[in-house]
Amino acid sequence: MKDGVDVSVILCAYNEGRVIWDTIARVDDVMRRSRLNYEILVVDDGSEDDTRQKAVRYMEERGNGCLKVIGYEVNRGKGNAIKTGFAHARGKFVVVVDSDLDVDPALIPRYIEALKESDVAVASKWHPQSHTYVSLKREILSFGFNILSRISTGIKLKDTQTGLKAFRREVLERLAPRLVVNRYAFDLELIGACNHSGYKIVELPVNVRINSMVCFREILKMALDMLKIGYRLRVLKCYQRG
């Protein structure tokens, strides 16, 4: 690997032993073909299965020096995993991808290219070029969450929760230490902070297939987190540059 890293790809994983090998392989293949200098950071968020062991085995057998596996013993949530990954990232651009294969990583280079003229690139299931399969119940929940998030935070984006996003490094350097939500609504806080800080955000298409449902307890926790985020954004103004 050449000196310097153009792109750091962070894969947050919790109990993804069934798919983590395929996820790393697909991201690795996409990045190799992009001809960018890259690294992949797998953050094992306290998995109880063999996620970390499989990631380490991939690193040992096929990693080529581009892969790093990070982990801790207790599950702390996606937000904490992203912040942990970023603490180890060296790239000028940082891409965050869910590791469950719901999102196709093939479009990662397009997101990196978008950062030449923007600060943040966000996947949107509602983009006209997106190819999306989502169950009707999940689609209704997503639509309702988006309406409530717009009301509570003032964000105008159509989607903050889909698991593919790219950032200029300086955006995360400034905002990551200020973020307080570690679990269900971390994406909303992060994108809300970017929006209220005046960073340029672009929505891009995504290929996504989601079959899983969200339980009532998770919905309730997300709603509480949303209220907390709205208060920090609009009342405390915690993220504004000035």
| Number of H/I helices | 8
* Count of beta strands: 9
Low-confidence stretches: none
Could you give the distance between the termini?
39 Å
How much helicity do the residues have? Answer: 40-55%
H-E string = EHEHEHEHEEHEHHEEH
Q: If you compute it from the alpha carbons, what radius of gyration comes out, rounded to the nearest whole angstrom?
A: 17 Å
| Strand order of the biggest β-sheet | 3-2-1-4-7-5-8
What does the model show?
With 242 residues, this protein is an alpha/beta fold. Helices cover 41% and strands 20% of the residues. It contains eight helices and nine strands. The chain has helices at 20-34, 51-62, 78-88, 108-114, 136-153, 169-175, 186-196, 216-234; strands at 7-13, 38-45, 67-72, 93-98, 120-123, 131-134, 164-168, 201-204, 207-210. The strands form two sheets. A seven-stranded mixed beta sheet has the order 3-2-1-4-7-5-8, with helices on both faces. A two-stranded parallel sheet has the order 6-9. The longest helix is centred in the last third of the chain and has 19 residues, at 216-234. 45% of the residues are buried.
How is this fold's topology laid out?
Blueprint lengths: L6 E7 L6 H15 L3 E8 L5 H12 L4 E6 L5 H11 L4 E6 L9 H7 L5 E4 L7 E4 L1 H18 L10 E5 H7 L10 H11 L4 E4 L2 E4 L5 H19 L8
Parallel strand pairs: 1-2, 1-4, 2-3, 5-8, 6-9
Antiparallel strand pairs: 4-7, 5-7
